[in-house]
Amino acid sequence: MSSPSASGTTAGFEYVFPAIRGVQAQREFYVSMCPLRLIPKIFLFDEEELAPEVRAQRVLNKGRIPALASYIIDNPTDYVFSALTASVDGEMRFAGIADEGPGMRIGQLHIPMAARFLINDGQHRRAAIEAALSENPELGDETIAVVFFHDAGLARSQQMFADLNRHAVRPARSIGVLYDHRDERANLARLLALKSPIFRNFVEMESSTLSARSRKLFTLSALYYATDALLRGIELKAVSEAAELADQYWTAIDSLIPEWGLVRRRKMTAADVRRQYLHSHGIALHALGRLGNTLVLQSTESKSWKPRLEPLSKIDWARSNLDWEGRAIVGGRVVKNHSNVVLTVNYLRQKLGMELGPEEADIEATHVRGER
Q: Residues 157, 197: one domain?
């Protein structure tokens, strides 16, 4: 923020932005393109010591910054950042290139250097840009869109923050996987969903939840997390090897779960299988992925893990099986959180005669104590 002394030294000087003028809610606003190197210099953020009621923004979550900065640095040719929104506490003067017609909306926006710029939306992007510039100064010549509003006071700025975030909805994880071409695991999950005889035509590609009448057995996000768990920490020389291992593993699992095949042969509906059994739900897939990961890591020869899966054919996957209560099912509903996934994996490990790891043993002991 500009101090009084700073305001005195900048009197008579101004920023000049090429801009387009618009109107929202009977208020003028301006859209410009700012060089990235200018963003940390004019958009200051120092509200951490203020109480929430006198701030116009949430406190900066510094834990988010490294990932955002890495996103820019690691993808210099195809990163995408949406516009920043800022309020300007100072007089803004717009000079159009024409007095009438379309030229009235295009021109230059003049803002005194003594003015204060308050970010209403995008303070984490601003911090990430600053961090990225420190590692790669060449990014400074690139630009980001900025929407300027006149600062009408704290209440208005707080309302703008509330309005800008009121209807923000995080997209479903499945569609995020569907559209993510950087993540190799996402590419693999899509490949399985579209090409594997087990999953083809039975994976919901957009939503991360399935309606009661859906004809799909799995969601893409569930397949993504399960396959990621399967391959974690396994050294593979190429993506094709990961795809081959994943296909082999899920094919082996399919042979031990007859209901999946019944759905493909149209002898059972996907809705009936999901309603009656646990094995098509995300928690079961994730647990099977983690189980497979351990088996593959323990195997000394290719596919030597496959025979060890045989006991899974005797597991009662019915949701009515009381063994699942408190593990994958709580109060009659399938619940997937970290502890429930671990407890479900524990159950499968025990059926295969496998030892539990330290964390798994602790969670299992807590579960057993709760049943007494």
A: no
**pLDDT confidence bin for 86, thresholds 50/70/90:** confident
Residue 1 lies in a domain: no
Specify the higher pLDDT residue, 263 or 90: 263
Candidates 205, 297, 217; CA nearest to 263 is 217
Mean pLDDT, to the nearest integer, of 119-130? 89
SS3 assignment for the chain: CCCHHHHHHCCCCEEEEEEEEEEECCEEEEEEEEEHHHHHHHCCCCCCCCCHHHCCCCCCCHHHHHHHHHHHHHCCCCCCCCCEEEEEECCCEEEECCCCHHHHHEEEEEEECCCEEEEEECHHHHHHHHHHHHHCHHHHHCEEEEEEEECCCHHHHHHHHHHHHHCCCCCCHHHHHHHCCCCHHHHHHHHHHHHCCCCCCCEECCCCCCCCCCCCCEEHHHHHHHHHHHHCCCCCCCHHHHHHHHHHHHHHHHHHCHHHHHHHCCCCCHHHHHHHECCCCHHHHHHHHHHHHHHHHHCCCCCCCHHHHHHHHHCCCECCCHHHECCCEECCEECCCHHHHHHHHHHHHHHCCCCCCHHHHHHHHHHHHHHC
pLDDT of residue 49: 45
* Residue 219 and residue 174 in contact, taking contact as beta carbons nearer than 8 Å: yes
User: Of the given ranges (4-8, 161-165, 192-196), which has the lowest mean pLDDT?
Assistant: 4-8
Considering 166, 181, 201, which residue would you say is the last residue of a domain? 166
Residue 213 in any domain: the answer is yes
Contact 278, 335 (CB under 8 A): no
Residues 139, 221: one domain? no
Same domain, residue pair 123 and 184: no
pLDDT digits (tens, 9 = 90+) for 272-301: 999 999 999 999 999 999 999 999 999 878
pTM of the model: 0.76
Residue 4 domain-assigned (yes or no):
no
The total domain count for the chain is 2
Whether residue 179 is found in the same domain as residue 232: yes
Higher pLDDT, 88 or 159: 88
Q: Do 52 and 132 belong together in one domain?
A: yes
